[in-house]
Amino acid sequence: MIREEEEDDDEEEEEEDYEDEKRGTLSFVLSFISNTMSGFLRSLVCFRRAEMLNVPPQSFPSMSSQQRVAPSGQPRNKVALKPGHSLMDWIRLTKSGRDLTGLKGRLIEVTEEELKKHNTRNDCWTCIRGMVYNVSAYMDFHPGGEEELMRAAGMDGTDLFDQVHRWVNYESMLKECLVGKMVVKASMVLKAQPTKKEHTHVNGITPPPPLLPEPAKVPLPAKDHRPRYDWFQTDETVTIVVYTKRKIPNSGCSVVDLQGNILRIEILLGSWSYLLHWSLSHEVEEIVATKTVSSVGKIQVCLRKVVHAKWTQVGQPLESHDSFIRSKDRGLFYRDCVLVSKKEVTHDTQLFCFRLPPGTHMHVPVGRHVYLKASIQGSDVVKPYTPVDEVLMPQKKTVSSDIYLMVKVYPDGLFTPHLDSLDIGASLSISSPDGPSTLRSLRDVTHLYLLAAGTGFTPMARLLRLALQDLSSVRKTKLMFFNRQERDILWHSELEQLCAEEERFQVEYVLSEPPGSWMGRRGQVEATMLQGFLDRPEDSKCLVCVCGPTGFTELAVQLVRQQGFSEEEIHAFQG
């Protein structure tokens, strides 16, 4: 996640305050009623063509579920899988020739009544975006446990799936479990809800069209507060200018992709996403230049013409052009990146550097991650990782053409051994930034406390740099770093150097398997350990950030609460 300035906090708070204010205005009410009535009328037109059931959203996961996220951002639990039930084992099973549908290779059309019949542990069907899958065999392989899969048993699970797993490539993982296509009676049309994403072809079957044109998931800001764009040209260049109408970070908040003659510009504005998408009128050079003018909220994208001729338009608008929606409702976009370097950080952790394509510029805000996608044994495997800078405290602006990832390699894993085996020059698909931004909670913070375990340090690395170099309000930053052995400490020498040079920074190491000569803290995270670490000076504003394995994060958040910190003062990075 490439660094983000304090202005991003202002931008997010300003946008959220504005949304609250406009909800009370008459124009908002009229706009909302208009959109609602328009959507209802369109639904009547589509009435006889509907083929897919999508039940209204439900509370998912349940209040008692192991996957429920706590108010502080505590990540969901993963269930300990039985031996022989890893992702690699599931891929082997799907390729074994075993009949996972119970239909001996037949594909059928499934009615609502038929779907409801298959709602037990050993006979569990569910529907995702109009396609029905028999997930009975997958129960013991699901990292979230049987309970979560059973919540979608015998029903349409599209909304439930999107709330927890929208980035997962379910088509690839469940292709051998495909039962067929979902169909319903026309009378069910008005009860159905639209799907969130585009449909894809699965095993030769084309999913049914969406029931209704996709409405906004939440009311959009009034039109005059939407970003807008303009463009101008010279004999040699074409420049697109985006006016965001709000403060934006100096480091940038844009993701630009030029692939052939297709130009895609996405602007990340807090929890919102503004997209421009064209098939360009004429050929341009591969290199794209971007410029951010944070003081006025302006972003410029400059293209160089191949032929010095006058353009009458930028190009033909493509899907979702000039759209402004919640980022969570925008589908992930990938581009192929090239591995340019790999450096050992510890005995089992590598720092990978991937170079974006020449036509891509990407700024990853602090607090967000990217997804890596690779084809392994014929299946697409997707994993989220938090980018870091090339070094702990870079002295110059990070180049937006490089993405650095600090990854621990697990010998018995599926994805990380594949990643580690890549040769320099090999390609890997990397998504645009995703996940909630964490920076609004940093506004006016004076004391920042970081609790990290293992590779849970990665989101803390750029947060450290932001706090010490860009946030003038922060008077003290303290890191408590938990590891098994001293050799496991990431960027150990860099942390020691920073501690010696920066009086506002303090680090404490805790080892669970220390040598006899170890003079630092020992053991696991516990209450007495945090009592002296989490001090609250008079007239201070504190924030405690936590990241690590699920068990560590849960316990640490609980202990921090016991120290008297409120939910607003705790942020657990999702992992």
UniProtKB/TrEMBL annotation:
Region (Disordered): 1-22, 57-77, 197-216
GO cellular-component term (any): endoplasmic reticulum
Every CS domain range: 224-315
Low complexity biased stretches: 57-67
Reaction equations catalysed: 2 Fe(III)-[cytochrome b5] + NADH = 2 Fe(II)-[cytochrome b5] + NAD(+) + H(+)
Cellular compartments annotated: Endoplasmic reticulum
Protein name per Swiss-Prot or TrEMBL: Cytochrome b5 reductase 4
Lineage: Eukaryota, Metazoa, Chordata, Craniata, Vertebrata
